[in-house]
Amino acid sequence: MKRALAAAFAAGLLFGLGLAISGMTDRRVVLGFLDPFGDFDPRLAFVLAGAVAITAIAFRFVLRLPHPRFGDSFRLPQAGAIDAPLVAGAAIFGVGWGLAGFCPGPALVGLAGGLADALVFVPAMLAGSFLHWLAQRQRGGA
Amino acid sequence: MNAWTAGLAGGALIGISATLLLWSIGRIAGISGIANGLATAPRGDRAWRAAFLTGLLLAGGIALAWLPDGPAREQTGTTPLLLSAGLLVGFGTRMGNGCTSGHGVCGLGRLSPRSVVAVLAFMLTAMATVYVVRHLAGNAA
């Protein structure tokens, strides 16, 4: 249990450091990537490529193991159908991402770094997530 | 370190982080999912989320404070814009079960068809939104 938590903490450290040094907490850089017809900034593509190059190779080896080092089983998302909530949710997220240039990770790191933009954005993000959870509950989903 | 190598190096750290989390405790490093579960996951499923997020905030916050050429500290977007964007990001990522890290870094790494579709969808609407804001409405923000 202790080692599992230490591993999760270490993974969080690496993730936060990666987001900060890659420039992803700077919404101008992100908005620049999302503007191919304007002042295009390719940096986000390098970040995604660097990350996926590692996960694409390493995940294969890791998932061949019988179980995680400090756990019973791998908890992967169910390989379900491509349904309306997936596409609509991703599309809604994209609109918000395109408006502000913040996605959840960089926004949280920005909050920790004291960026005023993130200070406004993050509470609204948590409220949006809570609203969806509430709506699902109302419908008897959860 | 120029912008491209910083991007690649930062991306590599993110990839290593996601690999470490999967290898050690068998979890996917999706920030929105990890954060959401902090409040709504079963009690026994919350401690690792808190540990991960503590690390994320600690390292990210310290790195931002030290970074030369970092992002602006003062508010650069209008409050209504940031609030509405935040609401959409929070609502959409919960509805679509993931964001740039879960569907992007981890999902693309696993070649999950759901994640490939999600990434295409959010990239498309994000670029369309920026196009409308910057080139049709003529707003430079």
Notable traits:
heterodimer; A: 142 residues; mainly alpha; 0% strand; globular; B: 141 residues; 6 helices
Order of helices and strands of chain A: HHHHHH
What class, by secondary structure content of chain B? mainly alpha
Label the overall shape of chain A.
globular
Profile the largest sheet of chain A. none
Report the C-alpha radius of gyration of chain B, rounded: 17 Å
Low-confidence parts of chain B lasting 5 or more residues at pLDDT below 50?
A: none
**Biggest interchain interface, per-side counts:** A-B, 116 and 110 residues
Q: Structural class, from secondary structure content of chain A?
A: mainly alpha
- The low-confidence runs of chain A, each spanning 5 or more residues with pLDDT under 50, are none
Distance between the termini of chain A: 28 Å
Chain-averaged pLDDT of chain A: 95
Instruction: Indicate how many domains the architecture of chain B comprises.
Output: 1
Helix content of chain B: over 70%
Question: What fraction, in percent, of the residue positions of chain A are helical?
Answer: 55-70%
Give helix and strand order of chain B, one letter per element, not per position: HHHHHH
User: Which descriptor suits the 3D outline of chain B?
Assistant: globular
> What's the rounded overall pLDDT mean of chain B?
94
Please report the distance between the alpha carbons of the first and last residues of chain B. Answer: 27 Å
Nutshell version of this structure?
The complex is a heterodimer of chains A (142) and B (141). With 142 residues, chain A is an all-alpha fold. Helix content of chain A is 68%, strand content 0%.
